[in-house]
Amino acid sequence: MTGSLTDLVGRITLVTGASRGIGRAVAVALARAGAHCILTARTQGGLEQTDDLIRQHTGQNATLLPLDLLDGEKLDTLGPSIAMQFGRLDCMVHCAGELGMLSPLAHMQPGDWERAMQAGPRTTWRLIRTLAPLLERSPAGRAVFLTDSHGQTPAPFWGLVAATRAAQDAIVRTWVSELPQGSALRINLFEPGMVATRLRRLAMPALDMDSLTPPEAVAPRIVSLCLPGPQPQGTYVHFGIETAY
Fold this sequence. Notes:
Elements: E1 12-16, H1 21-32, E2 36-41, H2 44-58, E3 63-66, H3 72-76, H4 78-86, E4 91-94, H5 110-137, E5 142-146, H6 159-178, E6 186-191, H7 198-203, H8 215-224, E7 235-238, E8 241-244
Parallel strand pairs: 1-2, 1-4, 2-3, 4-5, 5-6, 6-7
Antiparallel strand pairs: 7-8
């Protein structure tokens, strides 16, 4: 881990998918390190539960923004809303995602394909579009996108996951390539591996969830990518191993 978690004090961070799983664990870890967290997810109740955990650990509240990321017009207002309320954004961790249909490609229905593409690469692009101006102005901007190894190595029946993650990763890598020389913004992809989340349970219902890594165990590594100071740029992080892309 580069730097100290105390370096996050006073930083404004956004976490998507913060109502459960890895998003919730990352939000709590960021808040415990001193960051003020802006939390988004579809469910108000889930966000309130995350906020309760943050308050228990820190005595502080998060800022809750219930938002369906599939609603492109509302998503487009996210950056301006944060700018109006806080004037800045130092870090974004994109944890929200959908599993999509696990099926042979020839059996895939157009509606399932379109929804997954909207929830994956299209949402990633719109997040970059609305948040890039704020993150690029931060003296130590950080952006972390959760990804999936199927985007790197496709497998039978996981074609939709592979396609959406590969497209998302290509969008993120392109953003890195477009940053001006000397930019303070650091952008990275993080693949958490087999973590005990709701999406993992949906994908593999026969799997023993107790044998998997809990979300709280991967959160510190994600938080370390949010620290100011020297940080990697353009890496794919998998099981703690950083690979340049």
